[in-house]
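Q: Sequence in, structure out?
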Amino acid sequence: MSLFDDDIVTPAPKPPLAVRMRPVTLDEFVGQTEIVGNGMFLRRMIAADTVPSSIFFGPPGTGKTTLAQIIANETNSQFEQINAVSAGVADLRKIIDNAKNRLTIHRKRTLLFIDEIHRFSKSQQDVLLPYVENGTVTLIGATTENPYFEVNSPLLSRVRIFRLQPLDEAAIVNILEHALTDEVRGLGKTKFTCDISVLELIASIANGDARVSLNLLEQAAAMGSDGTAITREQIIAIAGDKVVSYDKNGDNHYDIISAFIKSMRGSDPDAAIHYLARMIVAGEDVKFIARRIVICAAEDVGNADPMALNVAMAAAQAVQFIGMPEGRIPLAQAVVYVATAPKSNAAYNAINQAIADVKGKNIGQVPSHLRDSSYKGANNLGHGINYQYPHNYAGAYIKQQYLPDELIGTSYYTPTTYGYEATIAERIKKLTKK
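A: Exactly. Output:
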């Protein structure tokens, strides 16, 4: 053997299994049947070679990049790929200039795939507009963020949005089985075996992400020997704590918070606790969680159980006092209390309607008998005259005008008959009859 390094040929490392197993045709593509299944719009557009500029929106590992490459292959387009994190306007202009020449000289279209398109600035997105509109490039943008929040309206108006869903466990198992048996791109030559229950475990841990599942399978294979079985113990050792898909600054963050609040509002303590756990495991700010519970206690429980707000506030203070992980306990207590309490949004509706009236109506002046009469000369202005002090009357109540003249007869607070608010409703009814 030569002693000179230049004479030593080192084999190039194989690409990761997830890259090698990337589908190259629609027939190989697994999942997203509502988008590319038989008869679906995008599949018909690919077959007709008339794919519109599009944005693929969905979680990681759902096939956004793969689908873009398949479109380029099956429509005979030149595939150009950039990442919005590292690419600039100069990169865009170079690709667009080449696309113009390609279209003019070779009559071949360019499919421009922009990963993480939500990271492009407004000026970068604006550069694309005329070339997407005139067909110089067919744009395929990929994003894990909601494009309606992250992409400029002018660009959105020129593209079609396709939402890709997390792959279900059956689809992930299908992908893993293919990887185990494929002798060209996969692990077929190594003759590894894997029980279906282990594949299902991988699929569960992957949480809808095909890339994660293939990485787990490849790592497990690296731990064993050819021809042996990949075991549950190996997968657990590699995966450790299950990674929770939850980006505190992303669209999924808002989806989970929304589900959390709606579960409490909908009186489902099990679902509410589940979403609380997802936020805690993902490292969500406990102050943010506590604020959501307090708001729900006031907005959705209200006077049907006034104690709910006290419990929520106590939990918010307790979690600051004791910290985490013990803080999860008062948070859970408050979540269960709010979720199982009787519900009323009457106070919430009342303040919203009152604010709307204050902003949009002639609301008049404070009645003279209610005005401040504590200063010298107030009586000369008629302030406080004829005010009747309720405590001087039976039941500490005397009927008199409190609303401005323009709003007489207006009712904002309409109590329900749920929980303690039924008592409030009965009291209001008795008072208004006097």
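The CA atoms of residues 294 and 312 lie 5 Å apart.
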